Amino acid sequence: MIPIQNLYYLLCYAWNRLPEAEELQAVSGAEFRRPLALLAHVLLRGTTRLLHQGLPLRYTERTEELPELRGRVLLDPTLRRQLLPRGRAVCAFDELTPSSPLAGLLRGTLQVLSRSRAVPPELRRQIRAGLRRFPAAVEALPLTATTLRLVRRERPRGLSGFLLNVCELVYRSTLPAPDTASPARFRDFRRDEPLMARLFEQFVRNFYRLEQRQFRVSSETIAWQAEAATPEALALLPAMITDTSLESPARKIILDTKYYAAALKRHHDQARLISPHLYQLYAYLQNQPMQPDQQLDQQLEGILLYPAAAQAIDLRYTLGGHPVRVVTIDLNQPWEGIAAALLGLLAER
């Protein structure tokens, strides 16, 4: 299992945000036993900062029965309720308010966490105190897939985008409740391999984007070096999208991350590399196009990167004329060791 402090680093880089010194000190000093407590802590502190800065104001349309005209008069409900003889009307008008889908989602998610026994009592008390800081105009929105899609469509960035990712991870950690009145129950998302595989991939790619300047970092789509009788037949070939491509004038590295419990698989009592992973990387290397302006001496390399769990390995091959490395990284060591190991992968062979 990834230690809680390292999990904070992983989430920050995965969501393209550098860890903050003040937050690191708080996370290091807190005795979090479950990832949910970390998420609750980070969400509370980030929301508090957002509230301190002031929620952005926006115009939202309100519909209300009023004793004076304001905005647009809605004739149908006004006539149906026979309001005109009483000097009243149903009006639709724009109002400047701090209420927004993101603010409502943050309030709703914190309400869910404030009732969960998986969150330490003292942290639940702090969350309840933090909820009282929300403006009265901000109505809590339920933590659902629909609400998350609604907020995602607004493309929040910076701290707001980071907090949206935290809310989504809380949602993905939620277990089905026996009834709506029961407090939400949560699972340890570190056991969700597909989810952790995506986070691990994003973590590695964004770490290299933020922590080194030698290589240009991207995720690229590689076209098959293939021919077919018709364009329709070519279109049926599966897409090849790299996890991380690192390119400099002298070198290009295709780095593929795999979040598996072990980098080796036993077959007839003999340990072997996982063949689909190696075939995939080999296909990426063999189908790399030579750009017209590309230097002829650029070295093309491949790396398969696994988190170290059952066994640590570091294997080097030459496949199809290209250097290939299959290596694990220990996510259970202090963060400084993880950062040094990742940067060390880029060193010359």
TrEMBL record:
Signal sequence extent: none
Annotated transmembrane regions: none
Stored Pfam families: McrBC
Biological process annotations from GO: DNA restriction-modification system
Name this protein carries in UniProt: 5-methylcytosine-specific restriction endonuclease system specificity protein McrC
